[in-house]
Amino acid sequence: TLTWHAQIGANTTSTWSADRLSYGDSTPGTVTLNSVGSGNIGAYCLPTTYTGTLPNSGWSDAFTTTLDTTQWVDASSGNASITGSALKINAVAGVYRNIYTKNPFNFLDSTVSVKVTSVPGTTGEAWLQLRKNNGTPGGDLNNRLALWYYSPGNQLWMSDTTNGTETGNSLTYNSTTMKYWRITSTGTTVLWQYSSDGITWTTGRTKTITWDLSNVYSSLEVGTGGSVSNPKYATFDDFTYFKGPQARFYATTTGALANDVNLTIERGTGGASGSCTGFTPTSTVYTGTLAALPTTYTAGLDPLNLSATPQTTTYRITGTITPTSTKRSTTTITWQAQGP
Description:
The chain has strands at 2-7, 13-18, 29-36, 59-61, 72-75, 80-82, 87-90, 96-101, 111-118, 124-132, 140-150, 155-162, 165-172, 180-186, 189-195, 202-208, 216-224, 233-242, 246-255, 261-269, 280-289, 301-305, 314-321, 329-338. It is mainly β. The strands form four sheets. Strands 4, 6, 7, 9, 14, 15, 16 and 18 form an eight-stranded antiparallel sheet that branches. A hairpin with a 7-residue loop joins strand 10 and strand 11 (140-150). It is elongated. It starts with a strand and ends with a strand.
């Protein structure tokens, strides 16, 4: 029996059970545990809506009229402007221009995201960065996190720099599926993510960072290695620094069967209570044994930022069972939100 326990803080809870997670035959069997999740952060399509006021110590900027100088420092040498309710930064041959947050902030257990509505042409680059506060304006280029577009090769890079050494990986850039960029911290573990709609995110890279994430600046930047072709600018919109409640799920398992159960957990859309009909996966959040599922909130899977606006997501859990003898396990999976 799989007991699923959905919990939002001390508020609404709900449970369900899926038969045949205990598989006693000698022949390997496959059991699909049906779709999970609806409402704010529901479970098995049972509504578990958080209706209270959600704490959030972050802020956002939609770049609607003029640059908000209470939040930003303009280091663009006159190349940044608010145009058409978006931030436009011109690409100047051979140099880099940016705006950066006026005040450093705590990035631990937080996210920073931005909508990128256009990128520069040949040789151009567009950047979302987080830089360690080392006492210099805008932070330390030798210790930074970055999501950035590199025109040569049409690549979206996901990189980190530690003590001047940069590592990372890249994907072919798609302006539709990679319209939103996000860097997420779960403790010292950082996720580089992209999205077509700012709701459903795909993780392109994960790494544990050793320098201090609790005191950083963020910047939006455009640069070139030489002459740039049209468009000679990048545009950004809907910048958000979020440090509010995150929902994560983790498991408590008893019994010997847990090592014989391999799970794939996918996030997606669609699906109905008791059925995966209509479910469309958008990302895989876990592949491994039932026994290896995280056992604490701190290590919990798939951090989901919560807001006062109801959110809907669906999880599908598929389990493959290969027992060596008759065994039984009971698992309680808790989905919990904790605030800043």
